[in-house]
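Checklist before submission:
- one chain only
- standard amino acids only
- sequence pasted in full

Submission:
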Amino acid sequence: MDTEKISEAVEAYLVLHREEIFSRLSELCKIPSVRGDAAPGEPFGHEAGRAMRLAASFYAEEGFPVRIDKEGRFALADFGVGKKTVGLFGHCDVVPAGEGWTETAAFVPCRRDGAFFARGCEDNKGGILAALYCMKTIRELSLPLPARIQAFIGAAEETGMEDIEAYTAIHPMPDASLVPDNNYPFCLGEKGRATGWLVSPRLAEVTDFCGGEAYNKVLDTVRVTLAYRPALAESLLAAAEKEPAVTVQGFPEEGKLVLTAQGVSAHASQPAASRNAAGIAAAFLAECLELCPEDRRQMKTAAIILSDPMGAPLGLDGEDAHFGSRTAANGIACFREGRIFLSEDIRYGAGVSFSELSSALDEALQGTGWEFRVESATDGFVLPEDGAITRVLSEAFVAAGGEADARPYYSGGGTYARHLQNAYSCGVTYRTPGCSPSISLPAGHGEAHEADEVIFEEEYLAGIRILTVMTLAVAESLAER
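Returned file contents:
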């Protein structure tokens, strides 16, 4: 296979179909496919199901055989023949829109100066379209494909991955898979991930504490309601004048005070530069001498817990040779039966299990009155650095125009790859060395899970091209075995 010539042919084909690609991506990104209430045939809510069916229809329109799971959990599209199968896995569900969008509304796709803005354009509706045009390009250019390709369209990756679990329970896994939901060149392993809730003792004057909608997006806005007392109102209003991230409103006729704190969001796998809104609110209230002592104590504990997204206050901090620092990010705050519930998205290297970490967490909370209630835990994995598929992917990446010195990496994010065999997550877009985007965005904007999520059109076409070349290379490698 002359990979360089194939790469050039694929590039020319994608340029020719550029408007078609972005038209379909725009149509898909208009659907607010955040998980909703389950319904018959739509276990992850109507909008997530609608997006999954629309994405599947794109494949069907191109003549690829499509099957939708009878319970509506995922869709499959197939192309090619052969004893071996290469999987391409993407998801059409998205995290909530969040606040602070400036370029466009989250579900009103916008193209400007070579940039495409919309929630989900990168994570991961762009990945679904990349898989489609990988298959279409191979077919239309009659490129050598000695294996079958199966595309998976999921609808619950962001909220538990029940879709991929259902798939692997009833279908054989592909012999090798690519998951365009990460970065190029490709990933050799993912951190373990545990989710759950930190739960406070009962509070007295705090009557509500809420914000956020997703585990894997650092909480950027929180609203706290307190019982109204004139002295408390006076103290909080005065303190808010000195804290730009906090606003306080008094409603004496309704018997309440409302505090709003604004932070800086980030993906839960990379929270170092974030500023958690619940932590800001808790630290602010912990300094209020007019707040009752018990509530101040709980606010101080919450502020300490949320002060470090790397997990040190919870006894979770540490390093891994492959994955670097562990993280512990809060994305949701809610109030139930007089208690604060703070979600935790904990990510840790493959060298430790969550059962080991949970002991340290329990010890760190001892004496605070807080407890951790685990919801799920999946330990991490690593793939062989010297494996045959690893070598094939590295060579294909370089031949398709990738940087010769780029190396596979280990990721803090969680993708479908953790539920599959021989699965490598890779990029949706690729920035050519020396090039820079035509638009610059402020911190906290532009990345997956942030406001103004964006892909740059040239980088996206380059990403599809590399994915296509990698898919062909993996198919050839599998066929030779």
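Reviewer check: The radius of gyration is 24 Å.
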